[in-house]
Amino acid sequence: MASSTETSSQPERPSRPNLAFRQLRGRRSPAEFAALVRRAAREIGERVSCDARYVGRVEAGEIRCPNYAYERVFLHMFPGRTLTDLGFAPRSSVRGRSARTAADPPGTSGTAETRGAHEPYDTEDHRYDPQDPYDPHDPDEPYEPYENDPLNHEESDVLRRAFMTGGGATVAAATLSPLGLATDAVAAVRPARRAGSSEATVLEEAVRRIRLLDDRHGADGLYRRAAAPLRAAYALLDAGATRLATADRLHSGAGELAISVGWLAHDSGRFDDARSHYAEALATARMTGDPGLEAHAFCNTAFLARDTGRPREAVRAAQAAQRAGRPLGSARLMSLLALREAGGWAGLADRAGCEQALARAQALFERGHSDADPEWMSFYGEAELEGLEAQCWSTLGDWRRASRHARRAADLQDPHFTRNIALYTAELADDLAREGRPDEAAQAALRVLGLLDQVQSSRIQTMLAGTARVLLPHRRASGVSEFLDRHASLPRTGRA
């Protein structure tokens, strides 16, 4: 075990200043740039504790390659650039560092379950608490630790294996790739043991990764590859946990993963699978008394019910979500749940009920963000608010209002969230077509076609097919023929 005075191991080669990263900072101070990093992280659902000292260490070359969370944030901030473009060393060149210090006795695993409380964790003087290694409500507890920390290093045991499968007989690696989740890698065979905080951490990271990939690429290519990590997550629950706090994290993580996989099924048109996954998450929430997970499960159940022609169930599920989520104190959560209820009222052709729920959603949204907002709600901003309201007006047949809100949604969306831009623009195209503006509809639909090489979503493809049917009688209008021809030439592939 490392002593209380021991610092991280020295780099194997002298540090070289990262001049490229320094140039990107420009005239901003390190503290100002660190604030931009934290803001960018929130935009994509990450949590990093970037400060001026971290920026200084990067620029000094002390951090040769960032861990995965920082990598995602930096690539989000500077789209089109690689880590090498940002002045970092290739990840392969920093592989192989030991997850233990020289003072650790042979045979120690180097995980949070076996290290003492004195091993360095981040750039400041924070230390692990072996009784509670992670408190999501503690502002001083960094999500992004020291670059040599085994919970984040690529070569650590934890990141080489994501989940233990049933009975603890096999350790499966859920390798995250740029376009999906590999499910067939088996890292090792180990004796059965109960899960610890390291497994809970990787489970939480898998949920974040799936959400990020869905935002960028859509669900169709991800769903099947995400099923194996979900099975492994529930096997972890069967294996038991070392501490009650870890068990709570595992249950919450498994439930959130079930919802994420359910959403992938939902968005790719596998509605029965989605319903099953949402029900699984709801059962997990009820068993553990987790109101946040329960609200999330009911939220997605309401959305699914609306999409599958069960509007009354959508209203009831959204109202159940509001009852579960109200004690959490998040106005943004209650705003989203009011929108789910509005969608159900629209499906019932109850315009008054829909308008009341929409007004409530707007008022709650205007209260702004709070620390009580769930992590999974990172997608819910003004663009999503506008997009969901557009769907309500579209369901009610008010195409003019629907197209106005859909246009605002597409204009407001962060350009890095390609899937949502395609979704809102497809909604706009359909609303314009039904409003009787075929030329504008065709132009919007052509923009969506231009995004389909990056996005795989059956929902979006179904919307485009409906727009094409509406535009068929208007082939002579400007751009309509081009859209119809390009749409007809799209490959008709099966589900991934």
What does this structure look like?
The chain is mainly alpha-helical and 496 residues long. The chain folds into four domains: 1-150, no CATH class; 157-289, no CATH class; 291-380, Serine Threonine Protein Phosphatase 5, Tetratricopeptide repeat (Alpha Horseshoe); 386-496, Serine Threonine Protein Phosphatase 5, Tetratricopeptide repeat (Alpha Horseshoe), CATH 1.25.40. 54% of the residues lie in helices and 3% in strands. The chain contains 19 helices and five strands. The protein has helices at 19-25, 30-43, 52-59, 68-77, 157-160, 197-217, 223-239, 244-267, 271-288, 291-307, 311-325, 331-347, 351-365, 382-395, 399-412, 418-435, 438-449, 458-471, 480-488; strands at residues 163-164, 170-173, 176-177, 180-181, 185-189. The strands form two sheets. Strands 1-2-5 form a three-stranded antiparallel β-sheet. A two-stranded antiparallel ribbon has the order 3-4. The longest helix is centred in the middle third of the chain and has 24 residues, at 244-267. The radius of gyration is 24 Å and the shape is globular. Mean pLDDT is 75; it is low at 1-12 and 95-192. InterPro entries: TPR-like_helical_dom_sf. Residues 115-140 have a biased composition (Basic and acidic residues). This is Tetratricopeptide repeat protein. Residues 87-151 are annotated as: Disordered.
